[in-house]
Design goal:
heterodimer, A: about 150 residues, alpha+beta, Heat Shock Protein 90, globular, B: about 100 residues, alpha/beta, Transcription Regulator spoIIAA, 4 helices, 5 strands, about 40% helix, about 35% strand
């Protein structure tokens, strides 16, 4: 009887150009990964949220106005762990360095509009790490996939 | 992503259908202007057919909520699905809005 988490590592690549409408491609990408790795709808939505936030930052802010650039996404599922690696050749930007940690207990009047995205990524994913390597921003997000997650 | 705004029993209601991802949220900002104009009243956002909400979508909801807070109105969110409910709880949004089933 085969294990639910297949022993064979799987990897999925998606490259987006820095145009906002490209972000809609993430839906199909996540669906493909979820289907292949047996990820349930709730976790699938959370992963979609986290990935979308990371990718949106690249698409909107990594490259100077008028410059075409790419957001490269490599997803691997191996040994029950899903890893997103999002890289770009844009300006150095570390999204993990949040100026203020989002306070989710604040009232609507006091709640700042910003800070929400990074907070979500850190809540959803198990690890979030950033590196600047060879002129690229590389953001790595991991999530351990367990049944009943 | 479709947004239809209409009066339901005298209450301005926005019916959202589809996925509120980042591109959709940018367009939705313009489509939802009529709601910002009645921020002194009760506004209902019917999420029965809302499949997904990104952080961009959440920011939009928050902006509307802040406007009603300033102008004396109220935002009621109806029929969010279980996954979206989890996102609302994770972000503290569950306590910022009136959530109705």
């Amino acid at each position: 009887m085969s294990n639910i988490s297949d022993a064979t590592p799987k990897s999925f690549r998606l490259t987006l150009v820095n145009q906002v409408d490209e972000i809609s491609k993430l839906e199909g990408y996540i669906e493909e990964i979820a289907s292949s790795a047996g990820i349930d709808p709730a976790l699938s939505m959370s992963l979609n949220l986290a990935l979308e936030e990371a990718v949106t930052n690249v698409v909107l802010y990594a490259y100077p106005e008028g410059q075409t650039g790419e957001a490269d996404i490599l997803t691997t599922v191996a040994d029950g762990v899903l890893t997103f690696v999002i890289s770009d050749s844009g300006v150095p930007f570390d999204p993990t360095k949040d100026a203020k940690k989002a306070d989710i207990t604040l009232s609507a009047e006091d709640r700042p509009i910003g800070g929400l995205g990074v907070f979500l990524v850190k809540e959803i994913m198990d690890t979030v790490s950033y590196q600047r390597t060879d002129g690229k921003n590389v953001l790595t997000l991991t999530k351990t996939l367990v049944s009943g997650e | 992503m479709n947004i239809e705004i209409k009066e339901v029993n005298g209450v301005t209601t926005a019916i959202m259908e589809g996925r509120l991802d980042t591109p959709a949220a940018i367009k939705a900002g313009q489509q939802m202007q009529p709601l910002f104009e009645v921020a002194d009243k009760e506004i209902v956002i019917d999420c029965t057919q809302l499949e997904y909400i990104s952080s961009s979508g959440l920011r939009l909801f928050l902006a509307l909520r802040k406007e009603t807070s300033t102008k004396g109105g109220k935002v009621i969110i109806e029929h969010i699905n279980d996954e979206i409910k989890k996102v609302f709880m994770m972000t503290g949004f569950f306590n910022l809005f009136v959530i109705r089933n």
